[in-house]
Amino acid sequence: MTEFFVGVDLGQARDFTAIAVVKRAELRGDWDGAAFAWRRKVMLQVLYLERLELGISYPEAAERVAAVTRSADLDGRCDLAVDATGVGRPVVDLLRGQRLGSRRLLAAVITGGESESYAEGYHRVPKRDLMSWLQVLLQRERLQIAGALRWRTALMEEMRAMEVKKTATGREQFGAWREGSHDDLVFAVALACWAARRSDPGMAQGAEGYLQAPRETWWMYGQ
């Protein structure tokens, strides 16, 4: 199973391009005597954040993203999820021509639709689903953000600025998201977390499973 996930939000002329690296970590949860196993607790850990300089060219941005995936820790061990909405499509084409260290390149076109679909090399992902999953991770305390990150404070501010509205029919809308203030970091993280969910569908269902009990504890149970 993939261990690292790289999310990329591609900015336009006055917007930052952001890169986020998220690690999928399996931790030991509570002991379940009936199953004779430790519960598996899956965490997503934000280990790296980067904002590229304003005005950087798309070829330069593509090269930087490719270089991140080829880094020693990520090469051959990551999936890459890139915003392919609008100007993102030509950058995705540039990335497909690069030597990437990622196992897969997931090009995501963000929509206002109801369900996710896939056609001709592009995933169509509802904006609501992308951000709702990020909120679920936060509410379940399944998302950790490394404390020493340069852009940690900015990311936390963007997360606090996410505004959820409900229509008369009860449908959630992210009214203020992507409208005005910077949201590049939170969007890059959301894409990385979306890629992680695709790699492990059980996360979304809360079915995290079990870890095998360590042998040194078997004597406690008469084994």
Instruction: Flag low-confidence runs.
Output: 214-223
Percent of residues in β-strands: 25-35%
Radius of gyration: 19 Å
What would the CATH topology be?
A: Nucleotidyltransferase, domain 5
Order of secondary-structure elements: EEEHEHEEEHEHEEHHE
Tally of helical runs: 6
The major β-sheet equals: 9 strands, mixed
Count of the domains: 1
The coarse overall form would be: globular
What is the oligomer described by this structure?
Answer: single chain
Number of strands: 11
Distance between the ends: 31 Å
- The secondary-structure class comes to alpha/beta
Task: Give the tags.
alpha/beta; 223 residues; Nucleotidyltransferase, domain 5; nine-stranded mixed sheet; 11 strands; globular; 6 helices; 28% helix; disordered C terminus; two-stranded antiparallel sheet; single chain
Task: Give structural notes.
It is a single chain. The longest helix has 16 residues, at 184-199. The protein is built from 6 helices and 11 strands. It has a single domain (4-151, 187-215), classed as Nucleotidyltransferase, domain 5, CATH 3.30.420. Strand 2 and strand 3 form a beta hairpin. The strands form 2 sheets. Strands 1, 2, 3, 4, 5, 6, 7, 8 and 11 form a 9-stranded mixed sheet that branches. Strands 9-10 form a two-stranded antiparallel sheet. Mean pLDDT is 84; it is low at 214-223. Helices cover 28% and strands 31% of the residues. It has 223 residues and is α/β, with parallel strands linked by helices.
